[in-house]
Amino acid sequence: MAHPDLTSHHVNYLIWRYLQESGHGEAAVTLQRAWNHDPQSLPFAPYIRTHALVSLVQKGLQYYELEKSLDKEGNSVPLSPSNYFFGPVSFDLETQKGPSENISADQAPVSPTGKVARDGVVINGHSTATEAAPQNVKKSRKSDRAETNGEEVPMEVDFANGVADESKPDITESAPVGEAASFDSDGDVNMGTERPPSQEPTAAPTFTLTNGQSIGVQITPAKAADLSPDTAIIDVAGVDHVTRSLWRPHDPTVVVAAGDTFCSLYKLSSTSPPAQEKLVENKGDNVWVSAVAWDPQGQKLAVATYNEMRGSITTYDVAGNAVDLLPEVPRMISALKWADSGSQLIVVASDSKISELILWDDALQPEEFPPPQIVDDSVLDVSWLDRTQAFACGGMSVYQCEVDSSIHLSKTFSAGDPEQPWTFIRSAHAGSSPVAVAASSSSASFWIPTHDIRFDDAHDGHITAIQLKPNPSEQPNQPLILASSSTDDSVKLWHIDLENRKFDCIHRLSLSPSQPILASCFSPDGYAIAAAGKDTLSIWNAQRGGTPMATWKSSGTENGELVEHKSPVTNGHNGSIEDVQDRSLTWDTDGKKLAFGFKSQMAIINLQR
């Protein structure tokens, strides 16, 4: 049986794996984004062993030497240095090593970010085994909890005869708090004392691939890129306020903007202004938009409206044509959540006293909704776990639901204060067990009812958003990373340690002093985290944290202050905080564009410069 032809996908995958294994994570992610969003999904990927490219090249060199050592008749001939594949000049590894590789343990340089990880904290999927005191510790409202921007200890990878020699360098404590930060030639922050150029240590590469698991690593630049020149501003709302912006799945040319009184679909073009299709427009008839959601294939957009004590849902195609009108419900529809795959939609209809959880199967198109699940409280958020399970939250409770032909309650978890309801819910699988993470905006608390874990005072202000880090490749044993943003001017990344029942803050990021963060979200591949305030936005490498990779700032200010428009109504979406305007922030499916809804405008920010 002949071996399959070598294609560019085979070569690109081997190069991508080599870049990951040798610590060149930034280059690997750049290749991944330009070539294949998920290289691990290629059919041959599971069969490629570690260091395959190095092994293949070495075997090729052996064949090359064998070929050069034989004449046309097959007789052995001496191999001259001039015939060496890489030329006659020898390459001495020892002379090429940087000064840091000859430094003794007590003179070892600080880590690339100048910070030392706390003992026992699992950071970026690896446990820190070296005991060291955390630097730059900030005390929160709980005096016994410290925060630190944890970083993974770099690992040296030295390829010899196709086998990687992996060793972790020694670590010393970073310089005392308060010393000025400096940047080395790679843009890394060095918190240690300044060294002469001749003594500057060379940072060891970071080994970022273990058993086929890809983790993007990027060297954070010393100066963040300004995304303003690559941003298009769309005026969408007149005197109203943009509360939702969402991309059509798998299509970076179609985006939806919605507020309380409008919903419009925009088709983007590189050569002409965006084409607008108005789906809902309040013309004084008291029709309010309460929820918007695309189906996972991007074929239908569900738009919920509220009028005269009744809620209704209309679905539209990508051209803006109304396709279906779903049955009405006698309450406001506060949330619409499609399953990640399939045709099922969870509808949340609420009033001030009770809520209904309703399942709609778009493939069946029934004349009426199936019997709803009644909840004696206001449901504020809902999250699909998989095609058969979902979680909802609101008031003092989190609700676990089973989904088949309808949705029905299987378990209720109760805790908290009814005056400080559970506002957000996210769910994921940890091995074979479900994990539900709830957050209370007003009390800044986290709760994992599925594992009976409670964590209070996570922030010093209201929580404005939470999200679990995506795992597009569905790799097992991934660490659970939660991002939470707050009006205390920070977005924090937490490692959730289920075994030890605790939350560890691995990054604390901020836009600038006195800039409450009103929205945040991971890129679809989990590589980056974006956060936005009233008129500013920053993007960080989610693994490294530290200095932003890119920033954006609106020019629509008067006397240095952003002009705000008060919304005519408050629809209670995700428990919006009074006197703090909503901000919507979403990535397109490819992670190459951001849609940022602020006041009456929507910014389309292009990240591919």
Give an account of the 3D structure.
The protein is mainly beta. The protein folds into two domains: 8-214, no CATH class; 225-606, YVTN repeat-like/Quinoprotein amine dehydrogenase (Methylamine Dehydrogenase, Chain H). Helix content is 8%, strand content 37%. It is built from four helices and 45 strands. Strands 11-40-39-38-37 form a five-stranded mixed β-sheet, with no helix packed on it. α1 packs antiparallel against α2. It comes from Aspergillus pseudoustus. It is found in: Nucleus. Pfam families: LisH (PF08513), WD40 (PF00400). Keywords: Nucleus, Repeat, WD repeat. This is WD40-repeat-containing domain protein.
**Content-based structural category:** mainly beta
Low-confidence stretches: 97-221, 557-580
Amount of helix: under 10%
Average pLDDT number:
77
Strand order of the largest sheet: 11-40-39-38-37
Per DSSP, the total helix count is 4
The tally of structural domains comes to 2
Task: Say how many strands there are.
Answer: 45
CATH topology of the largest domain: Methylamine Dehydrogenase, Chain H
What's the story with the biggest beta sheet?
5 strands, mixed
Protein name: WD40-repeat-containing domain protein
Keywords: Nucleus, Repeat, WD repeat
Organism: Aspergillus pseudoustus
Region (Disordered): 126-152, 166-204
